[in-house]
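Protocol step 4 of 5: obtain the predicted structure for the target chain.
Materials: sequence only (see below). No template structures provided, no constraints applied. The aim of this step is simply to have a reference model before the mutagenesis design in step 5. Sequence pasted as it appears in the construct record:
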Amino acid sequence: MLSTNFSIYHLEYYLLIFARIAGVVSLAPIYGTKGVPRKVRIGFGLCVALIVASVTEYTPLNYTTLFGFTLLLLKELVMGLSIGLASSLCMTIINLSGMFIDREIGLTMVTEFDPTMNATSTISADFYNYFVLVVMLCSNMHYFIISAVCDSFRVVPVGGAVFRGDAAYEVALTFIQQYFVIAFRIALPIFITIMLCNIILGILAKTAPQMNMFAVGIELKLLLGLMVMVATVMFIPNITEYVYDITTDVVRSLIRTMY
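Step 4 output (structure tokens):
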């Protein structure tokens, strides 16, 4: 039940909650994209912070000067940015797998600006990225970000964040070890198809050297790659769920390292 005993004396507490939520919203996928206006993000963060402050039990903060409060504010902001960055990096797995695919089928040079990643990306990367985002929105997976930051106040109280480098390093190392493996697994059907195509083209180049296998190979790889992409579209929801599970594990592990 929401508490109505919110007064001006709780303003410092509310600002610390807002700092953590603002850090998450500024970098998290979907919420932190350039397609979402800054005013909307700020308003959304203020509303979520108000709800969290209303249902969270107020505890006195341990500081005596303005400098001490500023340090607490920075700690909450850094914690929020860490959670948002971790969830955003998990989503870049899809982008990396799309870049692997374009490298194989010959579309690496065709790049465009992706507002969801705030960077340039290839066509296949954009295709998979937007498809995954649509699946996440349709299946309400994007609520996890808000759920995670709200639950973080139960694990790490306001002003109680402790940054342990060794624990965070272990989480980052485990994630990096899985990062490229997962991206490669997503692009594996394309890799296998193009590898078989290269073997066949190599055999044909030996048996019929008068044929221009280079020109044939460019068109054939592109055609086969697009066919495999269309054939594997049905598995994108499974890929989305897999990346979602990884995101939840990484974010929860990161939050546990801060308390």
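Step 4 remarks: The radius of gyration is 23 Å. Strands lie at 111-114, 119-122.
Proceed to step 5.
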